[in-house]
Amino acid sequence: MRINDKNERSFYEIESFKNNWSVRELQRQFDSALYTRLALSRNKDKVKELSEKGLILEKPKDAIKAPYILEFIGLPEHSGYSESELEQEIIDKLEHFLLELGNGFTFVARQKRISFDDKHFRIDLVFYNRFLKCFVLIDLKIGEIKHQDLGQMQMYVNYYDREIRLEEENKTIGIVLCKDKSQSVVEYTLPKNNEQIFASKYETVLPSKEELKSLIAELNSQR
Questions:
Q1: Which pLDDT does position 157 carry in this prediction?
Q2: What is the pLDDT at residue 16?
Q3: Under a CB-based contact definition with an 8 Å cutoff, are residues 26 and 2 in contact?
Q4: Considering just the CA atoms, what is the radius of gyration of the chain in Å?
Q5: What DSSP designation does 81 have?
Q6: Confidence check: pLDDT of 215 > 70
Q7: How far apart are CA 60 and CA 174, in angstroms?
């Protein structure tokens, strides 16, 4: 593969070896701008680390991508699919979704029911990450994220931390995957020291060259 940036090329070489990617999977990860998406949520030192060690999961934020690319589910970018249809497509393509999530993820449950005070709630998807040693809860939203969505995820995370998590395990991570988000809504809803609840956008098509340029420009503006 002709990748001019030596840091980016080194990252893909390391990740291909670590994860035993096929040529097709390597091409898919490159086409989906994996390196750039990971770099968007990291500071300068962490971006450098990507080229030297690949993706290392040490804290919850290391597992988050911006955005997630779900082109493998086969849903058009502009269509009237529901959250349940999105969930079903992810389950049908679970192997691909695990690859998109990243290193160390295993599937635990879908529509996981939790109950208290005669009230019942269902968590869309539950995973476990063996490197972070914690549960990862995912809620799917087909529109723009609302502060209520983050509050609901906080409740799910609190429940898992208090009722499910073992003493030797780390705190639960909650991810709300949405089609659009207001960064201000996220920042003002969650506490400043938040390290458990995250909101990230998803795309159902591979980014175009113009979108990739926009991602890179966004990364550069944050440095």
A1: 96
A2: 92
A3: no
A4: 17
A5: -
A6: no
A7: 9
* Residue 49 CA from chain centroid, whole number: 19
- 114 to each of 109, 120, 125, 135, 160, how far by Cα in Å? 12, 6, 13, 15, 9
Question: What pTM did the predictor assign?
Answer: 0.83
DSSP 190: S
> Measuring CA to CA, how many Å separate 120 from each of 30, 44, 114, 151?
41, 43, 6, 16
DSSP letter for 206, please.
Answer: P
Largest CA distance in the chain: 58
**Structural tokens at position 205:** 């098509």
Task: Say how far residue 138 (Cα) sits from the centre of its chain.
Answer: 9
The sheet carrying 197-203 orders its strands as 68-69, 197-203, 173-180, 134-144, 119-129, 105-116
Pick from 52, 16, 22: which is nearest to 34 by CA?
16
**Domains in the chain with CATH codes:** 6-222 (3.40.1350.10)
**Structure tokens of 36?**
């750039």
**pLDDT above 70: residue 1:** no
Instruction: State the Cα–Cα distance between residues 99 and 81, nearest whole angstrom.
Output: 23
Burial, 118: exposed, middle or buried (Cβ in 10 Å; 0-12, 13-18, 19+)?
exposed
The kind and range of the H/E element at 111 are: strand 105-116
Q: How far apart are CA 79 and CA 53, in angstroms?
A: 39
